[in-house]
Amino acid sequence: MFANHNAQDKTYFDGTHRACSPEETFNRNWPLAKQLGITRVADITGLDTIGIPVCVAIRPNSRGLSTSQGKGLDLFSAKTSALMESIESWHAENIDLPLRHNSYAGLINAGEQVVDITSISTYTDSYVSSTTPIYWVQGQDLISRKPMWVPFDTVSTNFTWSGRGSTQANFVISTNGLSSGNTQQEAIAHALAEAVERDAIELARDAIRAGATSIKVKPETINDANCQKLFDALAQADILYGVYNITSDFKIPCFSCTIVDRESQGRWRTLPAFSGYGCHPSPEVAVMRAVTEAIQSRLTHISGSRDDIFWAEYSKLGNSDDLDQYRRIIEDIPASVDFTKIESISSQGFNTDIQQMLDILDNKGVSQVVVVDLSKPNINVPVVKVVVAGLMSPSEKSGTKQVRAIKREVNTARGLTA
Ligand SMILES: Nc1ncnc2c1ncn2[C@@H]1O[C@H](COP(=O)(O)OP(=O)(O)OP(=O)(O)O)[C@@H](O)[C@H]1O
Ligand SMILES: [Mg+2]
Fold this sequence. Notes:
The chain has helices at residues 22-29, 33-36, 75-93, 104-109, 184-210, 225-236, 283-303, 311-316, 320-332, 350-363, 398-407, and strands at 40-43, 54-58, 67-71, 99-102, 134-141, 146-151, 178-180, 239-245, 254-261, 274-279, 369-373, 383-388. With 418 residues, it is an alpha+beta fold.
């Protein structure tokens, strides 16, 4: 999997690390739209007052969500991120890799390498028994460098598949760790960072909600022109923002950003507060991703285009007491984190970044990082799903999250609780 890589394969560094420019990626992949059922990419930036680009790619015949959101510093970055997310989702809904139907014990007895199913996120606290037959798909464990079977439910996002649920396995079905890219290495690096990000969010959930001083970043220490541009746009639109360092025990830079209208805003409509998250070997890219994602979440809400945001959410969010609380948290709680002290682990090449992240995970006892290659020869876009045993994910039951945090002896002294 790591053969023939170029150690310095990153060529584009403006707000994201890529093997080529977003414009080149878009122009190369847009001709695939018809074949994959993507009918359009819409620029929805103008529905909000911030002006930082957000786009939506529409795929009406999806087997999961029919819209994919995209964000970035410029329009091509946002268009490309929406298009690439739609493309990767299509791949995860249309998997034609060989499946095996067997139990965990059955595969082990047959001499196969199998992911530790007790370390995979589940919707409930009950695990699938090791003798229950389920569907499996094979990937490559990046740490042992051996083929490894993972439950098909942890890879597929085809929500219409009739085999789903029949196993009572309860594995969380999500796009966590699903990624596309210009190269396979680029996709793996993004997917790994995403899995680490989701885990960090779960660890920091209470601290984020409280806007805790221990994780609150002093905005004036974020000395990055791209972030400054984003902060200026938010200030111009009369929006308050708080940036939080949610980097976990892995020390892979990870941030959250919360935005909320100032009180003077919202006379003709009341918008809730929104959060975004970002994880990347480079702290500057990580924080920028968090801020652009918060802006994207707000526009997703405004555009009403996402299938899984229901009326109940619209009606319960954004009441004035809640908004006041968010404002107080952002305005009154002092910040303590000096951004310049957060170390980058970024390099000039995706392979080096991947190896650094793998070493960190492995040293912390997270030793099964399975990549399933979902790319198709006739389409030729690198798409992977990375399944990391032992990391937490948003839909997971809280009991199992606690077990994982304790297993990793996560330091709760910073106010991070599972
Ligand atoms: N310029 C680009 N070139 C190649 N692939 C890209 C580019 N921008 C985004 N992508 C891919 O598109 C997908 C979506 O990326 P994006 O950064 O928008 O969201 P994300 O952080 O994965 O968001 P989410 O949390 O919603 O999953 C990822 O797989 C990413 O690798
Ligand atoms: Mg993603």
